[in-house]
């Protein structure tokens, strides 16, 4: 092996923290440039939240009766915030699958860069787009008459908590994307996994009248916990607080535990899958 071919590996092994951060920033900028050249990539965090908010509030909400007679829009907007942020994480798997299958990873292998940087940069990019999604949901909610009632500090905490959970879920989608053989498969797998999770929850409907086994399932669904936490922090109607189960009585702590657990499991798994795909 010549010194020229050995250089990238040698440099990569001696990367310091500063150089790794620089690599992540450069790759994040690359992802943002790609988005700026094809803005329609942001449709799932700009157009979709508006359509879903209007559709669920004005179409489905017209026939929804909440415990205590609460206004459906006040109940639904926190749930739609979680719904949109979780489903938008499919883009993480799609983006990584595109990079792996398009050959760009082969180019990265020849550069003296931090190997996991592409994964971290993708997660940072998607966290930024998730923040855009959260802003769109909030603006749409304000436009239809929704508002938080417990102050700006708790409202910011609610948005930060939901963004944290979405970031954690994005690592799971990263694994799905890296395990897929094509972009279409990555998208299909992501939707197949995430849609049942978000619909079988308290995000859009109260769960008290569900059959017992389904109510228990929604109670322990992490999406239900983060939704209940958002409603609690925002001061919006939260019927789940009447359910005497630990996740519904302590939704903030439950969300933090789920978020930490998802990152702890899927971040190392994504790194392993990426290394395996890059070595093929």
TrEMBL record:
Principal subcellular localization: membrane
Pfam families linked: ABC2_membrane
Localization per record: Cell membrane
Membrane protein topology class: Multi-pass membrane protein
Any one GO MF annotation of this record: ABC-type transporter activity
InterPro entries: ABC2_TM, ABC2_TM_bact-type, ABC_2_transport, T7SS_ABC-Transporter
GO cellular component, one term: ATP-binding cassette (ABC) transporter complex
Transmembrane segments: 50-69, 75-98, 119-144, 156-179, 186-205, 256-274
UniProt-listed GO biological process terms: response to antibiotic
Keywords per UniProt: Antibiotic resistance, Cell membrane, Membrane, Transmembrane, Transmembrane helix, Transport
Coiled-coil region list: none
Residues covered by the ABC transmembrane type-2 domain: 40-277
PANTHER family documented for this protein: DOXORUBICIN RESISTANCE ABC TRANSPORTER PERMEASE PROTEIN DRRB (PTHR43077:SF8), TRANSPORT PERMEASE YVFS-RELATED (PTHR43077)
Family: Belongs to the ABC-2 integral membrane protein family.
Protein name: Transport permease protein
